[in-house]
Amino acid sequence: RLSGITMKQVDKICTQNGITFFESDIKLKDLEQMTDMFLTSTAGDIISVTKFEDRKLQESDIQKRIKSLWI
């Protein structure tokens, strides 16, 4: 796991706005149960994961809020 600049900024935004933030190692079975995911990168900022295997994923209200605070 890399601790990049963008992820640190997402952590800061969440902390400042009362949104629980934590990082953890995840297993494949955890991914299979998730209904909302995003990635961070310097080039792409916050990137929504819209599909995992054969399942379509949608942004949760929390993800939308984090993105709105990012701008």
Radius of gyration: 12 Å
Sheet with the most strands? 2 strands, antiparallel
Strand content range: 15-25%
The unreliable regions are none
Q: What is the count of helical runs?
A: 3
Q: Could you say which structural class the secondary elements and strand pairing correspond to?
A: alpha+beta
Distance between the termini: 25 Å
Helical percentage: 25-40%
Physical arrangement of strands within the biggest beta sheet: 1-2
Number of E strands: 4
Mean pLDDT: 89
Secondary-structure element order, as H and E? HHEEEEH
Cα shape = globular
What labels would you give this structure?
4 strands, two-stranded antiparallel ribbon, globular, alpha+beta, 3 helices, 39% helix, 71 residues
Secondary structure blueprint with pairings:
Blueprint (H helix, E strand, L loop, with lengths): L4 H12 L11 H6 L4 E4 L3 E4 L2 E2 L2 E2 L4 H10 L1
Antiparallel strand pairs: 1-2, 3-4
Can you tell me about this structure?
By secondary structure, this protein is an alpha+beta fold. Helices cover 39% and strands 17% of the residues. It contains three helices and four strands, in the order ααββββα. It has helices spanning 5-16, 28-33, 61-70; strands at 38-41, 45-48, 51-52, 55-56. Strands 1-2 form a two-stranded antiparallel sheet. Strands 3-4 form a two-stranded antiparallel ribbon. Strand 1 and strand 2 (45-48) form a beta hairpin. The longest helix is centred in the first third of the chain and has 12 residues, at 5-16. The model has no long low-confidence stretch (mean pLDDT 89).
